[in-house]
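[#protein-structures] MJ: dropping UDENN domain-containing protein here for a structure pass
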Amino acid sequence: MELPIGSAALRVHLPPAADDPGPPPALLPANPSIPYGLFHDADLFAAFRGLLLHLWTLWELMVVGEPVLVVAPSPPQCSEAVAGLVSLVAPLLYSVDFRPYFTIHDPDFARLNALAEGEVFPPMVLGVTNLFFLKSLKSIPNVVSVGSPNPNSTRVLPVGGQSPGSGNGINGTPGKLKLDKLAINKFSPTGLLNSIKLRREGPLSLMTEHKEALWSTYVPTTKPDTSVLNRLIDAGVSPRIEESMSVVNNEILRRHFLELTTNFLAPFGPYLRTTTPSEGSSPFVDPPLLPPFHADEFVNGLAARGAGKFLSKRMKSNWLELYRRFLEGPNFMPWFRQRRAAAEQEQQRLWRQARMNVDIEKLMSKLSELERIDSFNAIERYLLREMENSRTGATESETVSQKLKGDLRAAFSVLPKDMQQLLLSNPKRAVLLQGSNKEIPELDGIISQTSL
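AK: finished. C-alpha coordinates for UDENN domain-containing protein:
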Protein backbone atom coordinates (compact mmCIF):
# COMPACT_ATOMS: atom_id res chain seq x y z
CA MET A 1 0.00 0.00 0.00
CA GLU A 2 1.00 3.63 -0.39
CA LEU A 3 0.82 6.17 2.43
CA PRO A 4 0.70 9.86 1.37
CA ILE A 5 2.96 12.02 3.54
CA GLY A 6 2.87 15.67 2.51
CA SER A 7 3.83 15.80 -1.16
CA ALA A 8 5.51 12.37 -1.06
CA ALA A 9 4.19 8.82 -0.98
CA LEU A 10 5.65 6.09 1.21
CA ARG A 11 5.25 2.66 -0.39
CA VAL A 12 5.18 -0.22 2.11
CA HIS A 13 4.71 -3.99 2.04
CA LEU A 14 2.48 -5.34 4.79
CA PRO A 15 3.49 -8.70 6.33
CA PRO A 16 1.30 -11.56 5.06
CA ALA A 17 -1.20 -13.24 7.33
CA ALA A 18 -0.05 -16.38 9.11
CA ASP A 19 -2.62 -18.48 7.23
CA ASP A 20 -1.70 -17.12 3.80
CA PRO A 21 -0.79 -20.24 1.74
CA GLY A 22 1.63 -18.45 -0.54
CA PRO A 23 3.87 -15.35 -0.77
CA PRO A 24 2.30 -12.30 -2.39
CA PRO A 25 4.31 -11.06 -5.41
CA ALA A 26 5.14 -7.78 -3.62
CA LEU A 27 7.25 -9.63 -1.05
CA LEU A 28 9.38 -11.50 -3.57
CA PRO A 29 12.94 -10.08 -3.60
CA ALA A 30 14.56 -8.93 -6.82
CA ASN A 31 17.49 -11.28 -6.25
CA PRO A 32 16.32 -14.89 -6.82
CA SER A 33 19.04 -16.21 -4.49
CA ILE A 34 17.39 -14.41 -1.55
CA PRO A 35 14.53 -16.38 0.00
CA TYR A 36 11.00 -15.15 0.45
CA GLY A 37 10.74 -13.34 3.74
CA LEU A 38 10.53 -9.96 5.42
CA PHE A 39 13.25 -7.29 5.16
CA HIS A 40 15.42 -9.29 2.78
CA ASP A 41 17.23 -6.05 1.88
CA ALA A 42 18.30 -5.27 5.46
CA ASP A 43 22.05 -4.66 5.83
CA LEU A 44 23.06 -7.54 8.11
CA PHE A 45 26.77 -6.89 7.84
CA ALA A 46 26.57 -3.19 8.74
CA ALA A 47 24.13 -3.74 11.59
CA PHE A 48 26.06 -6.58 13.28
CA ARG A 49 29.61 -5.99 12.13
CA GLY A 50 30.81 -5.76 15.71
CA LEU A 51 28.91 -8.91 16.75
CA LEU A 52 29.59 -11.30 13.87
CA LEU A 53 30.46 -14.20 16.17
CA HIS A 54 27.08 -13.80 17.91
CA LEU A 55 25.00 -14.04 14.72
CA TRP A 56 24.41 -17.77 15.25
CA THR A 57 23.13 -17.21 18.78
CA LEU A 58 20.87 -14.42 17.50
CA TRP A 59 19.63 -16.77 14.76
CA GLU A 60 18.60 -19.30 17.41
CA LEU A 61 16.89 -16.64 19.52
CA MET A 62 14.80 -15.68 16.51
CA VAL A 63 14.04 -19.30 15.52
CA VAL A 64 12.66 -20.21 18.95
CA GLY A 65 10.92 -16.84 19.42
CA GLU A 66 12.84 -15.56 22.45
CA PRO A 67 12.20 -11.93 23.52
CA VAL A 68 15.05 -9.62 22.48
CA LEU A 69 15.77 -5.99 23.30
CA VAL A 70 17.90 -4.25 20.65
CA VAL A 71 19.68 -1.14 21.91
CA ALA A 72 21.29 1.31 19.48
CA PRO A 73 22.42 4.95 19.55
CA SER A 74 19.95 6.09 16.87
CA PRO A 75 16.53 5.10 15.47
CA PRO A 76 17.91 4.16 12.01
CA GLN A 77 20.49 1.84 13.57
CA CYS A 78 18.06 0.04 15.87
CA SER A 79 15.45 -0.24 13.10
CA GLU A 80 18.02 -1.73 10.71
CA ALA A 81 19.16 -4.19 13.37
CA VAL A 82 15.60 -5.36 14.13
CA ALA A 83 14.89 -5.77 10.42
CA GLY A 84 18.12 -7.75 10.07
CA LEU A 85 17.17 -10.06 12.92
CA VAL A 86 13.73 -10.73 11.46
CA SER A 87 15.24 -11.50 8.05
CA LEU A 88 17.90 -13.78 9.52
CA VAL A 89 15.58 -16.81 9.71
CA ALA A 90 14.26 -16.72 6.12
CA PRO A 91 12.63 -18.73 4.58
CA LEU A 92 10.99 -19.23 8.00
CA LEU A 93 8.45 -16.43 8.25
CA TYR A 94 8.95 -14.70 11.58
CA SER A 95 5.62 -14.66 13.47
CA VAL A 96 6.63 -12.89 16.69
CA ASP A 97 5.66 -9.29 17.42
CA PHE A 98 8.52 -6.96 16.51
CA ARG A 99 8.86 -3.17 16.84
CA PRO A 100 11.79 -1.67 14.89
CA TYR A 101 11.59 1.51 16.98
CA PHE A 102 9.86 1.26 20.35
CA THR A 103 9.35 4.32 22.57
CA ILE A 104 7.77 5.07 25.95
CA HIS A 105 4.81 6.54 24.05
CA ASP A 106 3.86 3.15 22.65
CA PRO A 107 0.49 2.00 24.11
CA ASP A 108 2.05 -1.35 25.10
CA PHE A 109 4.80 0.26 27.18
CA ALA A 110 2.61 0.52 30.30
CA ARG A 111 1.75 -3.20 30.10
CA LEU A 112 5.37 -4.28 29.64
CA ASN A 113 6.58 -1.90 32.34
CA ALA A 114 4.07 -3.38 34.79
CA LEU A 115 5.37 -6.94 34.50
CA ALA A 116 6.04 -8.31 37.97
CA GLU A 117 9.45 -9.67 38.93
CA GLY A 118 9.75 -13.26 37.80
CA GLU A 119 6.92 -12.91 35.27
CA VAL A 120 7.86 -14.21 31.80
CA PHE A 121 8.45 -11.48 29.24
CA PRO A 122 6.24 -12.00 26.14
CA PRO A 123 7.89 -12.97 22.84
CA MET A 124 8.82 -9.63 21.27
CA VAL A 125 11.71 -7.92 19.51
CA LEU A 126 11.99 -4.28 20.53
CA GLY A 127 14.36 -1.76 18.99
CA VAL A 128 15.10 1.13 21.36
CA THR A 129 17.41 4.09 21.80
CA ASN A 130 16.19 5.26 25.21
CA LEU A 131 18.42 3.67 27.87
CA PHE A 132 15.56 4.01 30.35
CA PHE A 133 14.28 0.70 28.93
CA LEU A 134 17.29 -1.10 30.42
CA LYS A 135 15.75 -0.46 33.85
CA SER A 136 12.04 -0.54 33.04
CA LEU A 137 12.25 -3.76 30.98
CA LYS A 138 14.91 -5.48 33.06
CA SER A 139 13.01 -8.79 32.95
CA ILE A 140 13.77 -9.23 29.26
CA PRO A 141 16.32 -12.09 29.09
CA ASN A 142 18.20 -11.10 25.91
CA VAL A 143 19.73 -7.69 25.24
CA VAL A 144 21.87 -6.90 22.20
CA SER A 145 23.64 -3.59 21.79
CA VAL A 146 24.54 -2.55 18.23
CA GLY A 147 25.71 0.41 16.21
CA SER A 148 28.09 3.30 16.61
CA PRO A 149 27.45 6.52 18.59
CA ASN A 150 28.94 8.44 15.67
CA PRO A 151 26.28 8.31 12.93
CA ASN A 152 28.91 9.09 10.28
CA SER A 153 31.06 6.12 11.24
CA THR A 154 29.87 2.68 10.19
CA ARG A 155 33.32 1.12 10.53
CA VAL A 156 32.99 -0.88 13.71
CA LEU A 157 35.81 -3.26 14.53
CA PRO A 158 34.73 -6.91 14.40
CA VAL A 159 36.52 -9.07 16.98
CA GLY A 160 39.76 -8.61 18.82
CA GLY A 161 40.29 -4.85 18.48
CA GLN A 162 42.27 -4.58 15.23
CA SER A 163 43.31 -1.19 13.98
CA PRO A 164 41.18 0.31 11.20
CA GLY A 165 43.63 -0.72 8.50
CA SER A 166 44.52 -4.17 9.81
CA GLY A 167 42.23 -6.01 7.38
CA ASN A 168 43.02 -3.89 4.33
CA GLY A 169 45.34 -4.40 1.45
CA ILE A 170 47.85 -1.85 0.19
CA ASN A 171 46.73 1.80 0.08
CA GLY A 172 43.36 1.07 1.62
CA THR A 173 42.20 -1.40 -1.01
CA PRO A 174 39.70 -4.07 0.04
CA GLY A 175 41.07 -7.13 1.80
CA LYS A 176 39.94 -10.06 3.88
CA LEU A 177 38.23 -9.23 7.15
CA LYS A 178 40.65 -10.79 9.65
CA LEU A 179 38.87 -12.22 12.62
CA ASP A 180 40.87 -12.64 15.77
CA LYS A 181 40.85 -16.43 16.12
CA LEU A 182 42.08 -16.10 19.70
CA ALA A 183 38.47 -15.25 20.50
CA ILE A 184 37.45 -18.79 19.53
CA ASN A 185 40.29 -21.26 19.66
CA LYS A 186 42.82 -20.05 22.23
CA PHE A 187 42.80 -18.79 25.79
CA SER A 188 43.36 -15.05 26.17
CA PRO A 189 43.69 -13.59 29.72
CA THR A 190 42.69 -10.14 28.49
CA GLY A 191 39.74 -11.47 26.53
CA LEU A 192 38.62 -13.55 29.51
CA LEU A 193 38.79 -10.57 31.90
CA ASN A 194 36.89 -8.34 29.47
CA SER A 195 34.25 -11.02 29.04
CA ILE A 196 33.82 -11.47 32.80
CA LYS A 197 33.65 -7.71 33.33
CA LEU A 198 31.08 -7.31 30.56
CA ARG A 199 28.90 -10.08 31.97
CA ARG A 200 29.18 -8.77 35.53
CA GLU A 201 28.22 -5.23 34.58
CA GLY A 202 25.36 -6.40 32.37
CA PRO A 203 23.34 -4.20 30.00
CA LEU A 204 23.32 -1.35 32.54
CA SER A 205 26.95 -0.69 31.59
CA LEU A 206 25.52 0.98 28.46
CA MET A 207 24.40 3.83 30.72
CA THR A 208 27.99 5.07 30.93
CA GLU A 209 29.43 3.96 27.58
CA HIS A 210 27.93 2.48 24.41
CA LYS A 211 29.50 -0.80 23.34
CA GLU A 212 28.47 -3.60 21.03
CA ALA A 213 27.64 -6.69 23.07
CA LEU A 214 25.13 -9.45 23.69
CA TRP A 215 23.77 -10.32 27.14
CA SER A 216 21.68 -13.47 27.17
CA THR A 217 20.59 -16.26 29.49
CA TYR A 218 20.09 -18.51 26.47
CA VAL A 219 22.47 -21.45 25.96
CA PRO A 220 23.07 -21.72 22.19
CA THR A 221 23.32 -24.96 20.23
CA THR A 222 24.75 -23.67 16.97
CA LYS A 223 28.48 -22.99 16.66
CA PRO A 224 29.80 -19.95 14.76
CA ASP A 225 31.01 -20.93 11.28
CA THR A 226 34.41 -19.26 11.06
CA SER A 227 34.83 -20.39 7.45
CA VAL A 228 31.95 -18.06 6.55
CA LEU A 229 33.34 -15.18 8.58
CA ASN A 230 36.78 -15.54 7.04
CA ARG A 231 35.27 -15.04 3.58
CA LEU A 232 33.98 -11.58 4.50
CA ILE A 233 35.78 -8.61 2.96
CA ASP A 234 37.00 -5.49 4.76
CA ALA A 235 36.30 -2.46 2.61
CA GLY A 236 39.02 -0.04 3.63
CA VAL A 237 38.34 3.66 4.16
CA SER A 238 36.45 4.56 0.96
CA PRO A 239 32.66 5.00 1.50
CA ARG A 240 32.02 3.95 -2.11
CA ILE A 241 33.98 0.71 -1.69
CA GLU A 242 32.42 0.25 1.76
CA GLU A 243 28.95 0.15 0.20
CA SER A 244 29.85 -2.27 -2.57
CA MET A 245 31.72 -4.61 -0.23
CA SER A 246 28.77 -4.57 2.16
CA VAL A 247 26.64 -5.98 -0.67
CA VAL A 248 29.12 -8.84 -1.13
CA ASN A 249 29.30 -9.56 2.60
CA ASN A 250 25.53 -9.52 2.97
CA GLU A 251 25.24 -12.03 0.13
CA ILE A 252 27.71 -14.35 1.89
CA LEU A 253 25.90 -14.11 5.23
CA ARG A 254 22.43 -14.49 3.75
CA ARG A 255 23.39 -17.52 1.69
CA HIS A 256 24.81 -19.20 4.77
CA PHE A 257 21.84 -18.53 7.04
CA LEU A 258 19.45 -19.49 4.26
CA GLU A 259 21.26 -22.82 4.01
CA LEU A 260 21.30 -23.18 7.81
CA THR A 261 17.56 -22.47 8.15
CA THR A 262 16.67 -24.66 5.16
CA ASN A 263 18.59 -27.61 6.60
CA PHE A 264 17.03 -27.02 10.00
CA LEU A 265 13.53 -27.15 8.48
CA ALA A 266 14.32 -30.08 6.15
CA PRO A 267 13.12 -32.83 8.58
CA PHE A 268 9.58 -31.42 8.28
CA GLY A 269 9.66 -32.10 4.53
CA PRO A 270 7.84 -35.48 4.60
CA TYR A 271 4.84 -33.78 6.23
CA LEU A 272 4.67 -31.25 3.39
CA ARG A 273 5.37 -33.53 0.41
CA THR A 274 2.76 -33.58 -2.36
CA THR A 275 1.85 -36.63 -4.48
CA THR A 276 0.53 -37.13 -8.00
CA PRO A 277 -1.49 -40.03 -9.41
CA SER A 278 0.73 -42.95 -10.36
CA GLU A 279 0.94 -43.86 -14.03
CA GLY A 280 -2.10 -45.78 -15.18
CA SER A 281 -4.13 -45.03 -12.04
CA SER A 282 -7.31 -42.96 -11.98
CA PRO A 283 -6.99 -39.26 -11.08
CA PHE A 284 -10.73 -39.26 -10.32
CA VAL A 285 -10.23 -40.21 -6.70
CA ASP A 286 -9.58 -37.94 -3.76
CA PRO A 287 -5.86 -37.17 -3.33
CA PRO A 288 -4.32 -38.87 -0.28
CA LEU A 289 -4.12 -36.77 2.85
CA LEU A 290 -0.73 -35.40 3.89
CA PRO A 291 0.87 -37.40 6.73
CA PRO A 292 -0.44 -36.36 10.18
CA PHE A 293 2.06 -34.51 12.36
CA HIS A 294 2.65 -35.38 16.00
CA ALA A 295 5.41 -33.50 17.83
CA ASP A 296 6.47 -36.41 20.05
CA GLU A 297 6.71 -38.85 17.14
CA PHE A 298 8.65 -36.27 15.12
CA VAL A 299 11.22 -35.69 17.89
CA ASN A 300 11.64 -39.44 18.53
CA GLY A 301 12.14 -40.12 14.84
CA LEU A 302 14.60 -37.24 14.55
CA ALA A 303 16.58 -38.53 17.53
CA ALA A 304 16.85 -41.94 15.87
CA ARG A 305 17.92 -40.53 12.48
CA GLY A 306 20.37 -37.88 13.72
CA ALA A 307 20.90 -34.24 12.81
CA GLY A 308 22.25 -34.83 9.32
CA LYS A 309 25.66 -34.03 7.89
CA PHE A 310 25.18 -30.27 7.52
CA LEU A 311 23.76 -29.62 11.00
CA SER A 312 25.97 -32.12 12.83
CA LYS A 313 29.04 -30.10 11.81
CA ARG A 314 27.52 -26.87 13.05
CA MET A 315 25.60 -27.86 16.16
CA LYS A 316 26.53 -29.19 19.57
CA SER A 317 25.29 -32.42 21.09
CA ASN A 318 22.16 -30.75 22.49
CA TRP A 319 20.81 -30.01 18.97
CA LEU A 320 17.57 -31.90 19.68
CA GLU A 321 16.68 -29.36 22.37
CA LEU A 322 16.64 -26.65 19.70
CA TYR A 323 13.95 -28.57 17.82
CA ARG A 324 11.92 -29.01 21.00
CA ARG A 325 12.05 -25.29 21.72
CA PHE A 326 11.13 -24.50 18.13
CA LEU A 327 8.08 -26.80 18.28
CA GLU A 328 6.94 -25.15 21.52
CA GLY A 329 7.73 -21.61 20.34
CA PRO A 330 5.51 -19.08 18.57
CA ASN A 331 7.07 -19.48 15.09
CA PHE A 332 6.46 -23.16 14.39
CA MET A 333 2.69 -23.50 14.13
CA PRO A 334 2.05 -20.43 11.91
CA TRP A 335 4.87 -21.54 9.60
CA PHE A 336 3.75 -25.18 9.53
CA ARG A 337 0.10 -24.31 8.88
CA GLN A 338 1.05 -21.95 6.08
CA ARG A 339 3.33 -24.52 4.44
CA ARG A 340 0.76 -27.27 4.99
CA ALA A 341 -1.97 -25.19 3.32
CA ALA A 342 0.38 -24.41 0.42
CA ALA A 343 1.23 -28.12 0.03
CA GLU A 344 -2.44 -29.13 0.03
CA GLN A 345 -3.21 -26.41 -2.51
CA GLU A 346 -0.36 -27.60 -4.73
CA GLN A 347 -1.51 -31.21 -4.47
CA GLN A 348 -5.01 -30.23 -5.53
CA ARG A 349 -3.50 -28.39 -8.52
CA LEU A 350 -1.41 -31.41 -9.56
CA TRP A 351 -4.37 -33.78 -9.40
CA ARG A 352 -6.56 -31.32 -11.25
CA GLN A 353 -3.95 -31.13 -13.99
CA ALA A 354 -3.81 -34.93 -14.11
CA ARG A 355 -7.57 -35.02 -14.67
CA MET A 356 -7.15 -32.59 -17.55
CA ASN A 357 -4.48 -34.78 -19.18
CA VAL A 358 -6.06 -38.21 -18.71
CA ASP A 359 -7.33 -40.20 -21.71
CA ILE A 360 -10.74 -41.16 -20.34
CA GLU A 361 -11.52 -43.86 -22.90
CA LYS A 362 -8.19 -45.58 -22.35
CA LEU A 363 -8.66 -45.35 -18.58
CA MET A 364 -12.20 -46.78 -18.68
CA SER A 365 -11.09 -49.73 -20.78
CA LYS A 366 -8.85 -50.88 -17.92
CA LEU A 367 -11.44 -50.61 -15.15
CA SER A 368 -13.91 -53.15 -13.84
CA GLU A 369 -17.65 -52.42 -13.87
CA LEU A 370 -17.66 -51.34 -10.23
CA GLU A 371 -14.62 -49.10 -10.77
CA ARG A 372 -16.34 -47.51 -13.78
CA ILE A 373 -19.36 -46.64 -11.66
CA ASP A 374 -17.13 -45.15 -8.96
CA SER A 375 -15.26 -43.15 -11.61
CA PHE A 376 -18.51 -41.81 -13.06
CA ASN A 377 -19.60 -40.61 -9.62
CA ALA A 378 -16.20 -39.03 -8.98
CA ILE A 379 -16.16 -37.23 -12.34
CA GLU A 380 -19.64 -35.89 -11.65
CA ARG A 381 -18.54 -34.64 -8.22
CA TYR A 382 -15.50 -32.82 -9.63
CA LEU A 383 -17.58 -31.42 -12.50
CA LEU A 384 -20.12 -29.89 -10.14
CA ARG A 385 -17.29 -28.38 -8.10
CA GLU A 386 -15.68 -26.81 -11.16
CA MET A 387 -19.05 -25.48 -12.39
CA GLU A 388 -19.55 -23.83 -9.02
CA ASN A 389 -16.09 -22.24 -9.27
CA SER A 390 -16.79 -20.98 -12.79
CA ARG A 391 -19.87 -19.15 -11.48
CA THR A 392 -17.62 -17.16 -9.14
CA GLY A 393 -15.55 -15.93 -12.10
CA ALA A 394 -12.77 -18.54 -12.23
CA THR A 395 -12.03 -18.62 -15.97
CA GLU A 396 -9.86 -21.73 -15.76
CA SER A 397 -12.76 -23.66 -14.21
CA GLU A 398 -14.78 -23.19 -17.42
CA THR A 399 -12.11 -25.02 -19.44
CA VAL A 400 -11.88 -27.78 -16.85
CA SER A 401 -15.67 -28.10 -16.79
CA GLN A 402 -15.83 -28.67 -20.54
CA LYS A 403 -13.20 -31.41 -20.28
CA LEU A 404 -15.02 -33.09 -17.39
CA LYS A 405 -18.36 -32.96 -19.22
CA GLY A 406 -16.82 -34.94 -22.04
CA ASP A 407 -15.28 -37.37 -19.55
CA LEU A 408 -18.65 -37.79 -17.81
CA ARG A 409 -20.37 -38.72 -21.06
CA ALA A 410 -17.57 -41.10 -21.99
CA ALA A 411 -17.78 -42.80 -18.58
CA PHE A 412 -21.58 -42.99 -18.91
CA SER A 413 -21.37 -44.66 -22.33
CA VAL A 414 -19.54 -47.74 -21.00
CA LEU A 415 -21.94 -48.38 -18.12
CA PRO A 416 -24.60 -51.14 -18.29
CA LYS A 417 -28.01 -50.06 -19.65
CA ASP A 418 -29.82 -50.60 -16.39
CA MET A 419 -27.24 -48.49 -14.55
CA GLN A 420 -27.61 -45.75 -17.17
CA GLN A 421 -31.38 -45.64 -16.65
CA LEU A 422 -30.90 -45.53 -12.87
CA LEU A 423 -28.44 -42.66 -13.10
CA LEU A 424 -30.67 -40.69 -15.45
CA SER A 425 -33.54 -40.86 -12.99
CA ASN A 426 -31.91 -37.80 -11.47
CA PRO A 427 -33.02 -34.80 -13.62
CA LYS A 428 -29.94 -32.72 -12.77
CA ARG A 429 -27.65 -35.54 -13.86
CA ALA A 430 -29.61 -35.93 -17.07
CA VAL A 431 -29.02 -32.25 -17.85
CA LEU A 432 -25.27 -32.72 -17.35
CA LEU A 433 -25.27 -35.57 -19.87
CA GLN A 434 -27.31 -33.73 -22.53
CA GLY A 435 -25.74 -31.59 -25.19
CA SER A 436 -23.52 -34.09 -26.95
CA ASN A 437 -25.88 -36.87 -27.98
CA LYS A 438 -23.77 -37.67 -31.04
CA GLU A 439 -21.30 -39.46 -28.79
CA ILE A 440 -24.08 -41.59 -27.20
CA PRO A 441 -26.70 -42.38 -29.88
CA GLU A 442 -29.12 -44.04 -27.49
CA LEU A 443 -29.02 -41.24 -24.91
CA ASP A 444 -32.08 -39.42 -26.29
CA GLY A 445 -34.16 -42.59 -26.01
CA ILE A 446 -32.96 -43.32 -22.52
CA ILE A 447 -33.72 -39.78 -21.34
CA SER A 448 -37.17 -39.88 -22.95
CA GLN A 449 -38.03 -43.18 -21.28
CA THR A 450 -36.82 -41.84 -17.97
CA SER A 451 -38.93 -38.70 -18.38
CA LEU A 452 -42.00 -40.75 -19.12
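MJ: nice. The beta strands are 2-5, 8-11, 68-71, 97-99, 124-128, 142-145, 175-176, 213-216, 233-234.
AK: one more thing. Residues 76 and 115 are 28 Å apart (CA to CA).
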